[in-house]
């Protein structure tokens, strides 16, 4: 009788193990299909990016990130696409003799903060981290006019890639500007 109970328990345990294995396989298949969808989406986004169609590439990089938020390349190129869309909007407005303001450029939700955050996320995901921190520093100093935060980002870039004269020059220029601002406020 004990043997029969042990046999029944063994069969039940085996059946449960097979079900767990099947569920694990299904989850694994879903993850693989989601990853392959994200890679396909990334390819589509890169096609638009390479054709300088930055509004479309920004949309497609955003879709890529929705599918897989661990693709650093998507964050980096999304930031560039948004930045270049801003530049395009600026050039269009200039051509049409419109009064150009930062508010006009930001109409399409391409704020500098979004661009900066995407560059930082790309660096955190180890996609071109030195360049990512450098670009985040450029946008921080240009649009946020926040010298100390920009210097921190530039220093992170230098930690990863020490021999960058242009980064060192940016830091020196920002420090000079900050010193000039503080001395003009004292007077």
Q: What structural class should be given to the helix and strand makeup? A: mainly alpha
H/E topology pattern: HHHHHHHH
Overall body shape: globular
Q: Separation of termini?
A: 98 Å
Task: List low-confidence stretches.
Answer: 105-110
Helix content: over 70%
Number of strands: 0
Mean pLDDT: 80
Rg over CA atoms:
25 Å
Q: What portion of the residues fall into strands of 2 or more residues?
A: under 5%
- Biggest sheet record: none
Number of helices: 8
Characterization of the model:
The chain is mainly α. Helix content is 83%, strand content 0%. Helix 2 (54-67) runs antiparallel to helix 3. It starts with a helix and ends with a helix.
Indicate the topology.
Layout: H1 2-50, H2 54-67, H3 72-95, H4 102-105, H5 112-124, H6 129-143, H7 147-160, H8 165-186
